[in-house]
Amino acid sequence: MSAMTDTGHADAHHGPAKGLMRWVLTTNHKDIGSMYLWFSFFMFLAGGFMAMVIRAELFEPGMQIVEPEFYNQMLTMHGLIMVFGAVMPAFTGLANWMIPMMVGAPDMALPRMNNWSFWILPFAFALMMSTLFMEGGGPNFGWTAYAPLSTDYGPKSTTFFIFAIHMMGISSIMGAINIIATILNLRAPGMTLMKMPLFVWTWLITAYLLIAVMPVLAGAVTMMLMDIHFGTSFFNAGGGGDPVLYQHVFWFFGHPEVYIMILPAFGIVSAIIPAFARKPLFGYTSMVYATASIAFLSFIVWAHHMFTVGIPVTGELFFMYATMLIAVPTGVKVFNWITTMFRGAMTFETPMLFSLAFVVLFTLGGFSGLMLAIAPADFQYHDTYFVVAHFHYVLVSGAVFAIIAGVYYWLPKWTGHMYDETLAKTHFWLSFIGMNLTFFPMHFLGLAGMPRRIPDYALQFTDFNMIASAGGFLFGTTQLLFLFVVIKCVICGKKAAAKPWEGADGLEWSVPSPAPYHTFSTPPDVK
Amino acid sequence: MAGESSYYVPAQSKWPIIASIGLFLTVVGAGIMMNDMSAGVKDSTGHWVLFAGGLIMAYMLFGWFGNVIQESRSGLYSEQMDRSFRWGMFWFIFSEVMFFAAFFGTLFYVRHFSVPWIGGEGAGEMTHMLLWPEFISHWPLMKNPDNTSFQGASGVIDPFHLPLLNTLLLVASSVTATIAHHALKNNERTKVKLWLVATLILGFAFLFFQAEEYIEAYDNLGLTLASGIYGSTFFILTGFHGAHVTLGAIMLTIMLVRVMKGHFTPEKHFAYEAASWYWHFVDVVWIGLFVFVYLV
Amino acid sequence: MKHSVRILAGLMGLGSAMSQADWGLNMTRGVTSVSEDVYGLHMAIFWVCVIIGVIVFGVMFWSIIMHRKSRGVKPATFHESTLVEILWTTIPFLILVGMAIPATKTLIHMYDADDSDIDIKVTGHQWKWEYEYLGEGVSFFSNLSTPLEQIYNVRRKNPNYLLEVDEPLVVPTGKKIRFLITAGDVIHSWWVPALAVKKDAIPGFINEAWTIIDKPGIYRGQCAELCGRNHAFMPIVLDVRSEEDYASWLGEKREEAKAIRALTARDWSYDELYDRGKGVYNKVCAQCHQANGMGIPGAFPALKGTPMTTKKDQLTAHVDIVVNGKKGTAMQAFGPQLNEADLAAVITYERNAWGNNTGQMVKPVDILQYKKTGQLPQTGDQAK
Ligand code: HEA
Ligand code: HEA
Ligand code: CUA
Ligand SMILES: [Cu+2]
């Protein structure tokens, strides 16, 4: 393949433009990927800060530092920011950086739209955060925004919350379309579908989930908007509607959404574990099929979030069975990772440590998920801290740990420098301890009967809340260490080789570190 | 599969950031306007913000698409690029389908679950007995459970008048759009223009009658957004459909202008195809509407 | 001290967790056969997970310990085996089928609310529960009784802090009780762990749940769906009594209703009304409008110094919003919730407290007339 990438402008083959405008106007997938990652990190700090407010208020029974209405705003913003601002953009950032390099493409398929997908986000979040300062306060109905608390009883700022969600939806859909087009159309010759790294596969499937469900979320909040301002009665029985209808539409989006936040994580650890076990990934094909089955099943389980709303018993049973089924393909993934390690030759650098923690802790979170799926038992678990424990295990030690693992793994490729291994390992151990200290006791709290979304609680819940809060502060402060490690790596890390990990495999390691501004202007040949 | 010729990666572009600002102003303006409207505030500043946002968006669209057209005409785009655009447009339309699916799902839910339940069917026995003893379940829903807050409509739209006409118009326009497309492939440019104009006439006629129907609904039938779930679902489905027809018609108009200017070749006319895909999509949605909103 | 012991117990893990029966570390077993079944399901799935976990993590830690590079091992190269893939797809599937069977049975049982002996309509309001004994002519509201001073850490907290109410729901043992659950404003959720009953209260719809309790006692629960500002402050207390005790309680409640009707007819002085009104206000209205009448800007309007509570000619409007509420806002209709004496008292209080010195008072009989005719008697404007 001799053809060259025609970049149209004479200067395009040089490095990046200078100054601030480089970032504003860029169409380069690496620049955009970096912006996504930094943005996501700041959102993680902002959302984490709100979590700290929550944990501080919950340290003891009684109202101490915030009023209930502000607590509810913090809770809502925390959920929204972590989901839409931290985890999703982090994955999109990784996709931007890595997918073109992994499939041997010159850039993303639609580079200008790529830039737009990113730049919508700061505006969307500025709009959403500004609601906190509006009259009547920001959204206070939880990230799920159930009607009619969010419609007839919502604060005025709900209107802006809705539009912010619309903007995030537009951004995600365009991002997903771009990823699909890149993967399906820009692979290097010889890079057949079944040769693609799993990260690419999981992202391809995630992208499909995104374009299928983000519009549904848009539909749900649009109906909310209509009920608030235009007198419709979608979620009002007085006009023939139903508040529960909102929940159906929301969770039709919401459940696939949680897999949107975990499938790329599966991809990341599927790259890291073989690299540090020095053994090829076990069961590649079954991994691909398992991912696809999880994605398919995710569309038919949504009502497991609504076991207590009073759906007829046949519906209840259907959703219970379908939900339980998801454990099967997910189990296949877990077993494959473990068999990959089996009889390998393992070393335990930081990316591997985070990946191992991911496997264990995500599985724990999956187990509690499976318990939640048993409808009669969910009558006791639902809306308690047991659910909070479940989803922080899959989200924090799942999604977030995988993102951190990915960052350590690819940092040498991005920056051309190695990070400080000792500091990074410290970061890992403190995170690991802090995370478990925060969220493990929540299982007990939930089983003992502590409802979620409350700023104050009965006395018997005190001890475990204290442990959780202490753990939360530990975990939170530790993330500042992460920031430090990354900055140190960028500024004064040791020079990294093109392939710093002995067992790593994939096209991204065939280019120098740091990866040149334009990679694969000539498509590489994949055997 | 990659490999042939070259892939065009523009160096920098100012359009995305302009688009972001435009979008931001648009939604902020719309938000202020709606909040003021509901609070009864006159002379909302929201209009101005919305207007500014709209202008920026329009400027952006012209500029951005202008750029793309220019690049395309100067031969920068390979066939692979063309395929990227196709994937992009196709999945964009799919996302639109899902947007409508949310509303069709809503219609399905209220008709098969919430309204019958309130009327005492199935799981709704006690709901009916204790909360809405007077309510009778039927569709279209004319008398709402709480008919003072949500004044039901006095009549429904007869599917065999305007809606049927509109169905014929849109289906016909899909046919004419296809004829025009084939003409373009055969390089019969006069024919393209002719059939494209026909498509547009049909499209705008559809919009005209749709507006007529809304006026009829509001003025004579008391069928409004606020007349309960029947009005709510009716207007959200037909309303978003109408908005999409408008968008499609604008796209086709632009294609007509471009054909007049001599753009497109029998082999390369992706923009044209995209617009016609979109047109077929709104047509298909309409068929769904006609069946589920008007007929059954 | 006690804290640290509990913390230790917690850290020692689930083993010790199992031994603690009540509100400790594990799910409550409850006092009904259904809650017993649910507990059984919970424990079964828990042990399934533990066993799978031990196997899976066992293999993993084995590999971590034995197959690491520092021991000089050579990595194997195998990466596929259709047989094991099939095995670890089918075995979990069969385990799940095994779980689904008892779960299905329990669920179907839980949904069978037919043939009840007692029907109680449970309505969630921001932020209290209303109980109506259908066919008995008895209904009342159940409010949090923990005082604000305890919540704001001014006083020591009661043992049942946040789990106590002014009037518990009283039910008999041994009867099938059907709860008909709904809401007046937003979604709430009625949850008593000891019964394993949790059902959302959806405005405009009725959800059904049922229970048969054999053991008398006090059982506590909480609202389990975010319902606004005071979601944490709407507990449920269930007082389960023997059948005879229940019957006599029901008789007392009927007597009470009569006494309240007498209150309306009685003549009231301004001071009596003001004092009673202060009590009602602080209990019912202060949650939103705050004890000082300042409300919460943007959410709940101030009642101090606003036209409605200070202008003499707005008396009717004032009575109207309190009795009928305002649709689609958190301001609910208090007409059906409070008796005439309380309504008259609270309105009188609001028109004279915090410097709202209108000097006007409203009598219970006036409210009664307003409720019937929609108009206040022309005499109006009774000065104090
Ligand atoms: C990344 C996000 C993520 C992921 C991956 C999951 C995964 C799963 N979740 Fe979770 N979930 C959330 C995020 C996530 N969830 C969130 C955010 C909420 C709360 C939303 C809100 O209300 O705010 C929630 C809530 C939630 C509920 C509702 C609880 C309630 O509100 O009452 C339920 C109920 O069924 C559930 C189930 C499951 C199941 C069965 C899985 C499965 O996919 C797990 C499968 C994995 C395993 C089972 C482990 C590995 C498998 C094996 C080792 C094989 C062998 C195992 C067996 C046969 C047992 N989840
Ligand atoms: C990916 C998603 C994600 C992530 C990463 C997190 C991270 C954390 N979350 Fe959670 N959380 C959700 C998603 C997430 N969360 C969702 C969806 C809900 C439900 C919301 C709802 O009910 O609507 C929720 C709800 C939720 C609750 C329940 C509140 C309630 O129901 O009343 C709690 C309570 O402890 C909590 C705590 C935490 C903590 C301590 C962290 C920590 O991991 C955060 C750690 C990070 C930092 C702290 C930031 C870095 C450090 C600094 C900024 C420096 C300052 C540090 C200090 C002052 C110590 N979260
Ligand atoms: Cu009522 Cu929460
Ligand atoms: Cu789910």
Task: Give your account of this protein's structure.
The complex is a heterotrimer of chains A (527), B (296) and C (384). Chain A has 527 residues and is mainly alpha-helical. Chain A folds into two domains: 32-234, Cytochrome C Oxidase, Chain A (Up-down Bundle), CATH 1.20.210.10; 262-511, Cytochrome C Oxidase, Chain A. In chain A, 66% of the residues lie in helices and 1% in strands. Chain A contains 16 helices and two strands. The longest helix of chain A is centred in the first third of the chain and has 36 residues, at 68-103. By secondary structure, chain B is mainly α. Chain B is globular and about 70 Å long. The two termini of chain B are 46 Å apart. By secondary structure, chain C is of the alpha+beta class. Chain C is 41% helix and 16% strand. In chain C, the strands form three sheets. In chain C, strands 3-2-1-5-8 form a five-stranded mixed beta sheet. Chains B and C meet through helix 4 of B and loops of C. Dinuclear copper ion binds at residues 124, 127, 188, 223, 225-227, 231, 234 of chain C.
- Ends distance of chain A: 13 Å
| Structural class determined from secondary elements of chain B | mainly alpha
Q: Describe the global form of chain B.
A: globular
Q: Output the CATH homologous superfamily of the largest domain in chain B.
A: Cytochrome c oxidase, subunit III, four-helix bundle
**What is the name of the CATH architecture of the largest domain in chain A?**
Up-down Bundle
What is the H/E order of chain B?
Answer: HHHHHHHH
Identify the CATH architecture of the largest domain in chain B.
Answer: Up-down Bundle
Averaged pLDDT of chain B: 90
How many structural domains does the protein architecture of chain B include?
2
CATH class membership of the largest domain in chain A: Mainly Alpha
Mean pLDDT of chain A: 93
Entry keywords:
heterotrimer, A: 527 residues, mainly alpha, Cytochrome C Oxidase, Chain A, two-stranded antiparallel sheet, 16 helices, 2 strands, 1% strand, B: 296 residues, Four Helix Bundle (Hemerythrin (Met), subunit A), 2 domains, 8 helices, 73% helix, globular, binds heme-A, binds dinuclear copper ion, binds copper (II) ion
Write the layout of secondary structure elements.
The complex is a heterotrimer of chains A (527), B (296) and C (384).
Chain A: H1 20-25, H2 29-57, H3 68-103, H4 111-130, H5 158-185, H6 198-229, H7 243-260, H8 263-277, H9 284-297, H10 313-325, H11 327-341, H12 350-373, H13 375-381, H14 385-415, E1 417-418, H15 421-448, H16 462-492, E2 494-495
Antiparallel strand pairs in A: 1-2
Helix pairs in contact in A: 2-3, 2-4, 2-16, 3-4, 3-5, 3-14, 4-5, 5-6, 6-7, 6-8, 6-9, 8-11, 8-12, 8-14, 9-11, 12-14, 12-15, 14-15, 15-16
Chain B: H1 15-39, H2 46-73, H3 79-118, H4 125-131, H5 162-185, H6 189-221, H7 228-260, H8 270-295
Chain C: H1 2-11, H2 14-17, H3 33-66, H4 82-110, E1 118-125, E2 128-133, E3 138-142, H5 148-151, E4 169-172, E5 177-183, E6 188-192, E7 197-201, E8 207-211, E9 217-223, E10 235-241, H6 243-265, H7 270-289, H8 307-310, H9 315-324, H10 340-350, E11 360-361, H11 364-373, E12 382-383
Parallel strand pairs in C: 1-5, 4-10
Antiparallel strand pairs in C: 1-2, 2-3, 5-8, 6-7, 6-9, 9-10, 11-12
Helix pairs in contact in C: 3-4, 7-10, 10-11
The complex binds heme-A (2 copies), dinuclear copper ion and copper (II) ion.
